[in-house]
Amino acid sequence: MSTQTRRERERAERERAIIAAARDLALAEGWDAVTTRRLAAEIEYSQPVLYSHFKGKDAIMAAVAVEGFAELADALATARASAASPRQAVADVAAAYTTFAEQRPALYDAMFTLAVDLPFASQDVPTDLARGFAELADAVRPIAGDDDLEAVTETFWSGLHGLVTLMRSGRLRREGHGRRLAVLVDRFSR
Amino acid sequence: MSTQTRRERERAERERAIIAAARDLALAEGWDAVTTRRLAAEIEYSQPVLYSHFKGKDAIMAAVAVEGFAELADALATARASAASPRQAVADVAAAYTTFAEQRPALYDAMFTLAVDLPFASQDVPTDLARGFAELADAVRPIAGDDDLEAVTETFWSGLHGLVTLMRSGRLRREGHGRRLAVLVDRFSR
DNA sequence: CAGCAACGCTAGCGGTGCTAGAGTTTCGGT
DNA sequence: ACCGAAACTCTAGCACCGCTAGCGTTGCTG
């Protein structure tokens, strides 16, 4: 029993190492730099080992994204909790969202622009993803008015996502971000 | 002189054929299916010929995107021109934008999510891209109020872009699109 | 201690974007 | 009319990608 548990533990540690290596490499050099060969070298094992843990590279990216959902949900919860007023909560949550995307671009990509397949149909992803969405919805609720809360939240989220992705890809100049964010919050708050 | 002009003409036609083949292939099977080998086979030349016309695959995608900018600008102009009122113009332009993205996903990807490098620093792209943006700005102007028009337009554009990309990647259910679009337009119009 | 099962390795497959160098065709000057 | 040069397109190949078959070793179990 002890040897088996040890091997299971070692295996779990190695899986964590893979995810950590993928995350670090992506944050440092972008997802293009994350190849199975570099990942294998990083954890000091051969390539096929990766495939005994994950179905493929997409699954590894999905695992990294899962961590990101938890972090984003935490960031949004913190922002909402420390806001002085409901109106301020919307602005703070919005700012926290774009800041998260700006500071962890590779993580944001894995969560929302790449890795389309696996994570959304999985089991534990909806938990943290739904938590983040719920934070957004709670912030939006006071300003939803007569509109359907889910629709307003999704639309507000889309606005944030659009701001983030268009700025990150160079379509929007970075210097106007604050003003655009203020416009978005204001238009949804009035 | 005549032979030289003939060769130049043939060369121009071949360049158009490359762009058309890339566009058709991308629309039919997505950009992943667009490889330099398939492209070369499609135009019935060898691979290296592509590189005598374009710097690389990205440049080919950028050329396809350029065509897209013109089409999008036309679609927005048509929608705005046929609108009964300024308020209706915003809604119609927004609908035209998301419809364009929905019906030509590969084209939209080339324009706004892939091919980050080349097109925006180029010469003729800003023309059609600016034209599309101007259509958006003209539609938004009556509802800009005291806010800076450019900031409002960029933010409204971000909302549309976010709706489109999140829906296309499966993050937003397709059935709620109409309601979300109405929310966006309404929040910006009031 | 023998047999077996689990494990991680080397080697390789088919694919990618891209390029060097050879071979062919066409042009321009004598 | 011919021949050297320039322009052009091809074949072949490079380095890389994600992924996998099959072998060899290791360590557990009866």
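qc> DSSP finds nine helices and no strands in chain A.
qc> done
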